[in-house]
Write a structure and sequence with these properties.
Blueprint (H helix, E strand, L loop, with lengths): L28 H37 L2 H5 L1 E6 L6 E3 L2 H15 L16 H13 L15 H10 L5 H11 L3 E3 L6 E2 L2 E2 L8 H5 L3 H9 L3 E8 L2 E9 L10
Parallel strand pairs: 1-6
Antiparallel strand pairs: 2-3, 4-5, 6-7
Helix pairs in contact: 3-6
Bound molecules: iron/sulfur cluster (SF4) (2 copies) and zinc ion (ZN).
Length: 250
Amino acid sequence: MLAYPPVICSICSAPLTVHRVTHGYCEALACLTAVGVRRHEQGKAEERAAIQAVARSHRESMLQQHPALQSQGLAVLVVPGFNADAQPMQDERRETLRQHIRELIAGDAIATESPLVPPLDDVARALQPACTICRGHCCGKGGDRAYLAVETIFRVRRQFPSMDDVAIAAAYENAVPASSMIDSCIFHGEQGCTLQRELRADVCNTYYCDPVKELPQNSGPALSIVMIEKLSVKRSTLVSSPFMGNRDPV
Ligand code: SF4
Ligand code: SF4
Ligand SMILES: [Zn+2]
């Protein structure tokens, strides 16, 4: 029975039955899906707002602890976080990597070659404290293959012409840490990535999450980098902003 006076679905505008009036939307699959998406987005927006509130309150307390910052200015950068524990390396993981490297080494020549890995530049160095506070959220999907591809091996051969394939395979196997973070890349050790930059996949050397990418635009004279979990600050560091000229660390 349709509601009277008429009430329409907030998504598709179809007239609602009396049973759907309190919901405000009809039972069509498309409308139920749209409502689910809307709720999910609302939840995310509320979560972001709550995190920003924690960041603002963290900023206030930093300003109280460091009164000099009140005149200098203080920006807060919220980074993601990786919080799993470490566990001893399992033989199966080593074997999966070993097999993967063997296949890559036997891989055919490729049309496009990756550029050689340049030395760490000042910008990349300046971004490192953010990744240190985060502890490698973006490494979580690296698995036992660490994004390594045939292109990587071709690049490593060009970058280290004195290394033969046996030496290259050994370099990867030897870089596996004795213990690594649970549910993350095989090279994700307790102190960060154990694979030297030149041996990593391109994505490992070039990827930055959005907060870190925005850092150069958003930082003030001093910068507090924070990782927030369950609406409280779990880790933080206070640095002079790397993008405001040379200053002593705060
Ligand atoms: S790039 Fe972002 S997600 Fe990756 S380690 Fe750094 S702060 Fe974390
Ligand atoms: S190789 Fe290193 S940088 Fe790349 S995903 Fe694994 S731990 Fe992260
Ligand atoms: Zn509808």
